Amino acid sequence: MRATQLLAALFSFVFVSANPYPENVVSSRPTHKRFFDVQGHRGGRGIAVENTLPGFAWGLIHGATTLEMDNGITKDGHVVVWHDESIEPYKCRDTAPAFPDDPDYPYVGKLIANMTLAQIKTLDCGSVRQTDYPLQLIFPGTQISTLQEVFDFVECADPEHQVLFNIESKIDAEQPNRTLAVSEFVTRQHKVFARSPYKNSITYQSFDWRTIISMKKLDRQILTSALVDELTVYGPERSTSPWLAGLRPDQFNGSTLGEQLAEAAKFISADILSPEATYPNGAMFTTKAMVARSHALGIKVKPWTVNDLNVADALLDWKVDGIITDFPDVLRRWAKQQALLVAPKYPKQRVLSCLQKHTS
């Protein structure tokens, strides 16, 4: 690697902070970490409305190893589970203002960072089936949940605390006025992580590598995953991307982009590299060389979002450590056919009973 003083200054602070939560020790309780990691993307948005309690319920019912989800931060500082920076009309509907004559109403179209939790809780985000997912179950009246509410529901369905979580910070590195800052995301998310029985079962992922560096500085026990795709590798005309914390892949050793990204992920002390599986034209963005170099560096590889078993076959040949998919039910059946050890499904009646309890 052609190391520079700039890179050294960027990363040196990661190692100078002791864990401020010494009471959170690694649990000896067995978890799904022993299984091939079938991750339900946004719970499993091909099956049920994304990033909602019903979506996570069906992810558990279908045997997802890991529930993947996204976090935003509201104007009043609450960590909510939602993918988009704003409330999109093709996913949510207004119902009523949070209080009479609220000047912010209607809320659809507004940024989460500019809304309070009370305003967000009025939205119906379970009534609209997505065009790209015609088999998606809808659940009219479903609200956006806080991260704490998701943990509470899953603990009801999973009293042994075996399920894993992959939680993304939805921060906008290109348009910082659309989301809250890195420090807000990391500190507020970690506060919820630290008081959860699932604290040691969480992977923290982001396209904005500044948040990965900051989370490692705050708590070295949290596993981190460096997300990357073709749009975040470089800026326009191969300029330095705002997403990779000032790093450039071509500053690292490797004859291919994949190998360079593996080296860059190691440089920020990421535990996992989570690349886009394919380019939009179908060519592979994740490569055999990327996986091999990552493994040589002690980094796992878990590509996204894989909804094609031909792609899954190739990734398995390259020995990836898990796959993020919109269809965890299908990928789990495929994994069993490949003689991979897969997580058990959760009892349907128990999960649905917990869902009713936590949505009524």
From TrEMBL:
This is PLC-like phosphodiesterase. GO terms for molecular function: phosphoric diester hydrolase activity. Residues 36-335 form the GP-PDE domain. PROSITE patterns: GP_PDE. It comes from the Eukaryota. The keyword Iron does not apply. It comes from Sistotremastrum suecicum HHB10207 ss-3. Residues 1-18 form the signal peptide. GO terms for biological process: lipid metabolic process. Keywords: Signal. SUPFAM superfamilies: PLC-like phosphodiesterases. It holds the Pfam family GDPD. Coiled coil: none annotated. PANTHER family: GLYCEROPHOSPHODIESTER PHOSPHODIESTERASE (PTHR46211:SF14), GLYCEROPHOSPHORYL DIESTER PHOSPHODIESTERASE (PTHR46211).
